[in-house]
Amino acid sequence: MSRNLDLTGQTFGRLTALKVSRKRDRRGRVLWECQCTCGKKKNVATGDLKASKVKSCGCAYREDLTNRVFGRLTVVKATKQRRHNNTVWLCRCKCGKKVLVRGNSLTSSNTRSCGCYNRDRASEVHRTHGEAGNNKTRLYRVWANMLKRCSDENHKNYGGRGIKVCKAWRSFIAFRDWALAHGYRDDLQIDRIDNDGNYCPKNCRWVTCKANSRNTRRTRWETMNGETKSLAEWCESYHMSYSVVHQRLSRGWDLMKALTQPVQKNGKNNTEVRNG
Questions:
Q1: DSSP label of 199
Q2: 150 φ, ψ to 5°?
Q3: Residue 170 has what pLDDT?
Q4: Spatial separation of the C-alpha atoms in residues 112 and 236, rounded to whole Å
Q5: CA-CA distance, 193 to 249, in Å (whole number)?
Q6: What pLDDT, on the 0 to 100 scale, is given for residue 2?
Q7: Suppose 264 and one of 96, 119, 162, 273 were both cysteines; which one would form an S-S bond, judging by CB atoms 3.0 to 4.6 Å apart?
Q8: Distance CA 104, CA 101 (A)
Q9: Which stretches in the chain have pLDDT values below 50?
Q10: Rounded distance, CA 145 to CA 186, Å?
Q11: DSSP H helical ranges for 152-202
């Protein structure tokens, strides 16, 4: 979906999108050539720009953050550590605890406390709606786990990738009201429509476990006759084996042919005869 967006002239942090680059990244994503306010140019994936994962050519992360305040955190000094090519800063939280935080997590407001903020919010929620404590509801656990994985910088698929929870959903009551108004059931899971985007009302929905497992960064999406589905869904619609269709596409077959050509078996090892 994001491949068709025209970002020309739009500004994302310090970056202004100039034009689509001829290059692609290792995942095959569309890259935009961007101009940083410092004058340097950088190619950035569409999803990374929209999700504010990349907001400069890198100059923002070389800033001296000493003594600056981000939420409840005051930066003490830079350390020799680096995570994901970012300087790690020693910070002192308002509660007195010291914590190590990546520079981009501070400047993007992804980390604003040592963790005490979420604990304080959880305590407040428990006092006001009664869905926490020893009798946690499933919806409360979904919310709490969502906050936990997005605040954990060591979680490579969420906090470590810069995935955030929107400001409104840091309140369980706001999240609960949205969930109940948008089809929540105990047999459904929360799913981000754009896997590079954040947890927010416009980017989330309730889906079955099966649908959720198909919408990952590893999912292969295919478009035919103007309709886009995961390859697994196309195979299911045409009653074809996923492995057979995947092999055919890898050999350069057209999607329709790969889905409709009868499978010719090799009797010796029960594999498909390569005839295309």
A1: B
A2: -80, -20
A3: 92
A4: 45
A5: 25
A6: 44
A7: 273
A8: 9
A9: 1-3, 269-270
A10: 15
A11: 172-181
What is the per-residue pLDDT for 211?
66
Rounded Cα distance between 1 and 3, Å, is 5
Residue 32, Cβ neighbours under 10 Å: how many?
23
DSSP 264: P
Q: Indicate the residue type of 178.
A: W
Q: How many angstroms separate the CA atoms of 96 and 115, rounded? A: 12
- Can you give the pLDDT at residue 252? 87
Quickly tell me which residue has 């981009």 as its tokens: 104
Query: Is the Cβ–Cβ distance between 249 and 257 less than 8 Å?
Result: no
pLDDT at 156: 81
Residue corresponding to tokens 């992804």:
110
**Matching residue, tokens 């006759």:** 225
Residue with tokens 């930066």: 75
HSE-CB at 256 with a 13 A cutoff on CA atoms is: 4
Give the span between the Cα atoms of 153 and 159, in whole angstroms.
Answer: 4
Distance CA 72, CA 114 (A): 8
Q: Is 235 helix (H, G, I), strand (E, B) or coil?
A: helix
Q: Which residues pair with 82 in a beta bridge?
A: 87
Q: What are phi and psi of 15, to 5 degrees?
A: -100, 140
Query: Is-contact 75 106, C-beta < 8 A?
Result: yes
- C-alpha 130/C-alpha 3 separation (Å) is 44
Distances (CA, A) of 104 to 52, 60, 83: 11, 8, 10
Beta strand 98-102 with 227-230: parallel, antiparallel or unpaired?
unpaired
Provide the pLDDT for residue 129: 55
Query: What is the number of other CB atoms lying within 10 angstroms of the CB of residue 57?
Result: 20
Q: Where are the alpha helices (DSSP H) in 42-188?
A: 46-50, 103-107, 116-129, 138-151, 172-181
pLDDT at 67: 93
